[in-house]
Amino acid sequence: MTIIRQPSLFGIQELFDMEPTQKYEAIISAVDLDSMYHQVAKKSRLGAPEELNYAAMIISTFVRYIERIPTMKDLIKRLHDDLAFKLNCGFLVSDHVPSESSYSRLITKLEESDILEKEQEKVVLQAIAEGFITDDTVAIDATHFEARDQAQPKEEKPKSEPQKRGRKSKDERDGWLKEQAETEANLPLYDRKIVAQLDVPLAELRAEVPQDPKWGVKKNSEGQNVFWFGYKGHLAVGTSSQYILQALFSSGSLNDGKAAIPLLKGIQERLHLPLRYQTMDAGYDYEPIYEQVHRMGQQSVIAYNKRNEGEIIGYDKHFAPTCFREHSYRYDSFDPKYETLKYTRPKECKRLSLS
Fold first, then answer.
1. In sequence order, which ranges of the chain are alpha helices (DSSP H)?
2. Can you give the pTM of this predicted structure?
3. 340 or 12: whose pLDDT is higher?
4. 148 pLDDT higher than 70
5. How many Cβ atoms from other residues are within 10 Å of residue 20's Cβ?
6. Range of the domain at 264
7. Does the residue 5 lie in any domain?
8. Domain tally for the chain?
9. What is the pLDDT of residues 217-232, one digit of tens each?
């Protein structure tokens, strides 16, 4: 099949206005299929000849998501039943429709390589070069995917011995602290505290992400817990262009905040965009994330997550300083030289000596 290259990308509204077959060509022509084909094709001329049309299989895999076909079994059924759809995916009339196992082997080969990640980065860089991405703000959040695998039965943990009551002696406490430090050091990277990610290289952060299906829980818009067995997709999206700038795929049990620093480092090291703000919800309200954004020379806009914290003396509920009589100071400006916030004294405090 002849692959037609498109010289430039297209806007999202243009995509909505296209016919289905035009969508296939427009989306796939922006992707380098040759590099993907090279990853899955035979590297030697020796051995049995290839009977599968790998190029068409890759195209049909993309088309499956465009058409929102839920399973590979449904895709194969449509390829059998709809000849026009089969031809639009790049198959010849004489080609046999691949089996589920053939598609499974194809996807496994693509997953084992990092070719899809590289191609996504190429598309983003092309969009930046052509002026589609001019954002100054990035929004980071996570979504969930249910696994088709059946959840494993929960293993019963042996009951631990009751701890000795009362305060530990100095020697016992020192030994306990040493034991805790050793345990923390031997944990996998994503089982440690988020602060451990700050000085870890990006390649290691992405390589260590857990990707086994696990039980996950999130609160919905009504404040109720929603449980699922599967995975999470962590996305950093340009707020104006709506382009996915960085993405991370993880187990469903991974805390959202533990995926923020890999996404932020990926934006900084791979894209070099002139960004100013990083926006996130209360699930990312952790000090190391503020520190990473600060190292990037940008500002954080993160919703406050009130944990088991007492009242902060000297500040109001919006974290503005207060005077002796608890009148709030008013925000004035940010001083980039000293990296501090400036406030003006409230009118009610003009006559107070301790304001």
1. 12-17, 20-29, 33-40, 54-66, 72-81, 83-88, 100-112, 115-129, 170-186, 202-207, 260-266, 287-295
2. 0.79
3. 340
4. yes
5. 11
6. 134-148+173-302
7. no
8. 3
9. 888 778 788 888 999 9
Which residue carries 């262009």 as its tokens?
Answer: 241
pLDDT attached to residue 5: 41
Domain boundary among 280, 302, 324: 302
pLDDT band at 50 (very low <50, low <70, confident <90, very high): low
Judgement on whether residues 59 and 138 belong to the same structural domain of the protein? no
State the burial class of residue 137 (Cβ atoms within 10 Å of its Cβ: 0-12, 13-18, 19+).
Answer: middle
Say whether both 185 and 97 belong to one domain: no
* Contact between 41 and 54 (Cβ < 8 Å): yes
Evaluate if residue 1 carries a pLDDT over 50: no
Give the Å distances, CA to CA, from 272 to 4, 113, 245, 266, 289: 30, 25, 11, 9, 19
In a domain, 155, yes or no: no
Tokens of 2: 């002849």
Length of the chain: 355
Q: Residue 210 carries which side chain, given as an amino acid letter?
A: P
